[in-house]
Amino acid sequence: MHARRCNRIGWYVAFVAFVAVPWTAARAEAPRFGRDPAIEKRIDDLIGRMTLEEKLGQLTQQWGAETQDVNPVVTRTKRDDMLGLIRAGKVGSLLGTHGAEYTNALQKAAFEESKYKIPLILGNDVIHGYRTIFPIPLGGAATWDPKLVEQAAHVAAVESAATGTHWTFAPMVDVCRDPRWGRVAEGAGEDPLLGSEMAAAAVRGFQGDDLTAPDSVVACAKHYVAYGAPEGGRDYNTVDISLQTLHDVYLPPFRAAVDAGVGTLMSAFNEINGVPASGCRYTLTTVLRDQWHFDGFVVSDWGSVIEMVAHGYASDPADAAAKAITAGVDMDMSSFSYRDHLPRAVADGRVPESVVDEALRRVLRVKFAIGLFDDPYTDPSLEKKVILTPEHRQVAREVARSSFVLLRNEGDLLPIGEDVKSIAVIGPLADSQKDPLGTWAGVGKAEDVVTVLDGIKQRAGAGVTVRHARGCDVRGDDTSGIAEAVEAAEQSDLVVLVIGESDDMSGEGHSRASIELPGVQRQLAQKLHATGKPVAVVLLNGRPMALPWLAENIPAILVAWHPGVECGNAIADVLFGDFNPCGKLPITFPRATGQIPIYTAHKNTGRPPRDDRYTSKYIDLPWTPQYPFGYGLSYTQFTYRNLSIKAQELKADGTLEVAVDVANAGKRDGAEIVQLYVRDLVGSSTRPVRQLVGFQKVQIPAGQDRRVKFSVPVRSLGFHNWDMQYVVEPGDFQFFIADLEGTFRVVE
Ligand code: GLC
User: Closest ligand 1 atom, CA of 302?
Assistant: First the structure.
C-alpha cells in the first residue's frame, strides 16, 4: 500500500503581502473535469455495467466517523457494518472520517472488495484549518489579502489530505449583510468583489495546481445559493430576493469559485423566492451548467433534499429526490432519499435513468481527476510530519495578526509602551483556549491555543507585572467578579479587556436576535473605565457587534474575531507593536441591531438621509454605521494624493485606469489596503452609492510613498437590469479612493 501522493512537504515562508492581483487578472488554467476521452470511456463502461440501485449507491453520502467525539450528535455506524455497506456498493462517499488507518480500511473495502472497485471520496468540513486552526473566514477576509487566504487553505489541505480527507466542504462563499445570522462567521462578509477574491483564493489554496498531489483536496463552494440572506438573520429561514440581486450580489463569489476550477458545489438549505435551493433548476442547471459551464458535481447539504418535503415543495421523499436530481443535485448528503426512493421515481417514469447516469458521470469524473482510481490510499507516515508544525503555526500567526482591525486608538494608547510596567488582563475570554478556535474548527483542539493572557505574559517579559481577573462570564448576569477585576485594574498601568462572543455564539444554528455585547460585559467595561486607568479592548467575535458605549468611551478597540491557535501570540504582536495592524472590516459594524441590514453598497433612495425630518433616517439613532465596511486604522498614518484617471471617457469594452499616491506619513512601516469604489450616477435600475471595484494591499515603509494603479474593465461595472440582461449603460460615474474622488463617463 503506497501513498496516493508523493511525499512533498511544502516550505511556508512567512508571507509579506504584495499588491493583490486586480480582480479581473487572468488566472492560470483552472482544473477541469470530463475532458479526457480515456477516462470518459472508463466511465461509460462502468455505468454500462451498473444497475440503477448500484448507481444510486454511488450518489449516496453518509456520516462515517468511527468515534463519537468528532460529532456526538450524529449516530455512528460501527466499522464492520460500514465496511459491509461499502462492499455492497450502498455508499459512494463518507464524511466525518479521519486518520489514514481508518480511511485506508474503508477505501480497501471499496477499491479492492466491492463489485466495481469504485473508490470512496471522503469529505470533511475543513473550513479554516484542519488541526492548525486559522482565524474564522470572516477574519481571513479582514486581511483583504487573497495570497494569505490561499496560503492558509493550502496548509489546511496539507494536513487534512495527510489524514485521509480528499474533499473539503469549503470555501463557504455566502455573501451576508445581516450579522444576526450565525454563519456570517464562515464567509467573507458583505461584498461580492471581496467575497469573489476570497473564494477564488481559497479554491486555489485547497486544490493547488495538481488535484492528485499530496497537498491537494478538492474544494466545495457553498451554500449554493443566497443562504446568507435569510429573513430576520435566522438560520435556514426564507430567502426572498430579486433575481437582479441574486445575480449581482449572491452569485458572483460562486462564479469566481467555478472560474477558479472548484470541483464541487453544495446546494443550500434555504428556499430562493419559493423554490428550495436544492431543487432549483434555474440556479443548479440554467446558471451553473448552461451559463457558467461548471463541470464538477453538486452535493446537497445535510438532508436538504428530503427537507423539501418540510418546505412544502415536495409531497414525499421520492418527490423530493426526483426534484433534486432533475434540478441538478448529483449527490445526496445523508438523507438516503436517492438510494431509498429514486428507484420508484425512475420506475414511475418521473426521472429518466439518463439523469442518474449524468449525475454519476459527474461524480466519477471528479474521483478520476483527483487520482482516486490510481491509488486511493493515504500514506500513514505523513500525518505526524505535517500536523501542527511550527511552520503551519507561523502561517496561522501571520494570518491572524493581519486579520485584526484597529477600530480606535485615541491618544495612541497602543502599541503598549516601555513605560507600562503592569498590565491587568481582564475579561471572560482572556484566558480561554476554546473560544479562539471559533465555529467549525475542524479537529482543532483547545489545548493547541495560545490564550490572550499567555501571549501577553510571554511578550511582556519579566519586567512587567501581568495580573489577571475574569470579571464576568460571556453570558449571564453574574457581576460578582467585577470587583476583583476593578482591583486588578487599579493596581496596574494598563487594562487589556478581552470580551466578545464565545465560539458557540456563531456558526450553524447560532443566530442572535441581538448583536450587542452579551451578558454583563459592558458593565464590566464601564466599571474598569471608571477607574480612570487606560483600557484597551480586544474583541473576540464571530460577527460584527454593536458597541455604542465602547465606541464612545474606550480609547483603543481591536477586533480580533476568533483568531485560531495563534490567538495570544498574534494579539501580543499587535498590542506591543511588533506588527502594525492592517486589517479592514469585511462587513459593516452597525450601531444597533435595529439598523440591520446596513451595508456600504446601499442605494441612495429618493430621500437620502439629511437633517430634515422627511428623509430616510431614524429618530432615535444616526442612520450611519458605527464602523463602515473597509474601515480600519494603523499605528501609522497613510495619506492619499494625486488621484488621476487615464481617460475621462470610456467605452463599455474599455478599461478604467486610475492611480493614486499613497504616503506613509508616520514613523512605522505598514500595509495599507487601497480600495477603489465607483458610483454609477444614473441607471435603468438604481445603482449603489459605493460599489467596490478594486483593492490592493501595499506595504509602505515609514516616510515613503507608492503610486498605486488600478485597471478595471468597464464591463465589470455593469448590472442585471429589469429584463435580466447584464448591461453596462452609458452615463456619468464617480470614483473614490479614500477621501479623494473623480468622475468619468461611459460612452456608446
Ligand atoms: C452542515 C452545513 C454544511 C456542512 C455539512 C456537512 O449542516 O450546513 O456547511 O458542510 O452539513 O457537515
Answer: 11
Ligand 1 pocket residue status of 181, Cβ below 6 Å:
no
Residue 1 pLDDT > 60, yes or no? no
Ligand 1 binding pocket mutation candidate from 169, 176, 335 (most atoms within 8 A of CB) = 169
Which residues form the catalytic set? 301
Look at residue 154 and give its three-state secondary structure.
helix
Q: 431-480: per-residue pLDDT in tens? A: 999 999 999 998 999 999 999 999 999 999 999 999 999 999 999 999 99
Going 681 to 687 to 689 to 690, the CA torsion angle's sign is negative
* Distance separating alpha carbons of residues 256 and 245, to the nearest angstrom: 17
746 C-alpha to ligand 1 centroid (Å):
44
Domain 400-595 and domain 638-747, same fold? Reply is no
Indicate which atom in ligand 1 lies nearest the CA of residue 170: 10
How much distance in Å is there from the Cα of 222 to the middle of ligand 1?
Answer: 9
| Residues 270, 236: Cα–Cα separation, whole Å | 5
- Residue 71: predicted pLDDT: 75
Ligand 1 and 167: CB distance under 6 A: no
Ligand 1 close to Cβ of residue 183 (< 6 A): no
Query: Which whole number is the average pLDDT over 703-728?
Result: 97
Compute CA distances 13 → 95, 395, 398, whole Å: 32, 8, 10
Average pLDDT of the residues of the chain = 95
Residue 45's CB is within 10 A of a number of other CB atoms, namely 11
What's the pLDDT band for 69 if we cut at 50, 70, 90? confident
Q: Where are the alpha helices (DSSP H) in 336-481?
A: 337-347, 353-369, 383-386, 390-403, 452-460
Please work out whether the CB of residue 169 comes within 6 Å of at least one atom of ligand 1.
yes
With a 6 A CB cut-off, is 301 part of the ligand 1 pocket?
yes
Predicted model pTM: 0.95
pLDDT in tens, 549-577: 999 999 999 999 999 999 999 999 999 99
Closest ligand 1 atom, CA of 96?
A: 12
Residues of the chain above pLDDT 90, percent: 93
Query: Is 638-747 assigned to CATH 2.60.40.10?
Result: yes
- Cα 451 to the chain's mean position, in Å? 23
CA of 125 to the centre of ligand 1 (A): 7
The 10 Å Cβ neighbour count of residue 653 is 9
The atom of ligand 1 lying closest to the CA of 186 is 9
> pLDDT above 70 covers what percent of the chain?
96
Question: Quick one: pLDDT band at residue 429, thresholds 50, 70, 90?
Answer: very high
Specify the pLDDT at position 295.
95
Atom 11 in ligand 1: residue holding the nearest Cα? 302
Measured from the CB, is residue 508 less than 6 Å from ligand 1?
yes
Which atom belonging to ligand 1 lies closest to the Cα atom of 303? 7
The protein residue with its alpha carbon nearest to ligand 1, atom 1, reads 302
Rounded to the nearest angstrom, the distance between the alpha carbon of 321 and the centre of ligand 1 is 19
Q: Domain 31-383 is of which CATH architecture?
A: Alpha-Beta Barrel (3.20)
**Ligand 1 neighbourhood includes 404 CB (under 6 angstroms):** no
290: phi then psi, degrees, rounded to nearest 5: -75, -40
Instruction: Give one DSSP letter per residue of 573-605, joined into a string.
Output: HHHTTSS------SS-B-SSGGG-S--SS----
Per-residue model confidence as pLDDT tens digits over 605-662: 999 999 888 999 999 999 999 999 999 999 999 999 999 999 999 999 999 999 999 9
Fold of 400-595: Rossmann fold (3.40.50)
Q: Give the residue among 447, 550, 441 at the shortest CA–CA distance from 495.
A: 550
Quick one: average pLDDT of 482-498? 98
pLDDT over threshold 90, residue 53 = yes
What residue segments make up the domains of the chain, in order of their start? 31-383, 400-595, 638-747
